[in-house]
Amino acid sequence: MRFTTEQHLEHGVLERRFTLGEVPGILWTPETRTPGPAPAPLILLGHPGGLDRMYPRLVARARSAAARGFASATIELPGSGDRPPIAVVEQARADLRQALRAGTPVGDDLVDRLILPLADRAVPEWRALLDALLARPGIGGPVGYAGGVIAIGTRLAVTEPRLAAAVLFAGSFVPRVTFEEARNVDIPLLVLLQWDDHGNDRQQALDLFDAFGTTEKTLHANLGGHTGVPQFEADDGDRFFARHLN
Length: 246
Prior knowledge:
Blueprint: E1 2-9, E2 13-20, E3 23-30, E4 40-45, H1 51-67, E5 71-75, H2 87-102, H3 108-134, E6 139-147, H4 150-159, E7 163-170, H5 176-182, E8 189-194, H6 202-211, E9 217-222, H7 231-245
Parallel strand pairs: 4-5, 4-6, 6-7, 7-8, 8-9
Antiparallel strand pairs: 1-2, 2-3, 3-5
Helix pairs in contact: 2-3, 3-4, 5-6
């Protein structure tokens, strides 16, 4: 991990951009706890790609987490931003746009080609990020994950034993294998669903929630489209992590 820039944000938040190998990312830490007497719990902030485009939302989430004493970190999604494109994913995106224009169903094969190459690459990168961050002074477990793509968050919840809780955003296509992986998730979950997100299958999101194997799972469904998640859900997410990470 190599830090490239550093700036102090308002309300005592330190923001540092870094590269992990060739993967760009951002780390936010509450200055009052770093390097405080106890390490700060860590929240990994997932997103659908385009780190600079997503920055306003990510930094807002990071500031809110820092107010509760949590560190936050994110990395760029494979094939997004300045990272090299993934040919199979680019073709799947083109096929998806064509299917949506034509009003034809989005088949399982297309969803697999669109999502699985991202999950296959992203999950090991998130785990490598954890290795790097938890070795640093001032940052410790437990660890939470918040955001999308939901297939990535689901697989990370299954394969990463250091993950203690997750807030998952149900707003992306779900491969068939993700339903099988969901049955092995055993950490506390809070799932957010936008009821009128016409670009995604509401029933599929409900079926995935039902498939999660954990005995502690909560679904918050709100009216509105894909980007209309109410602000109070951020507050509820912070309270969820306060219960499970402190």
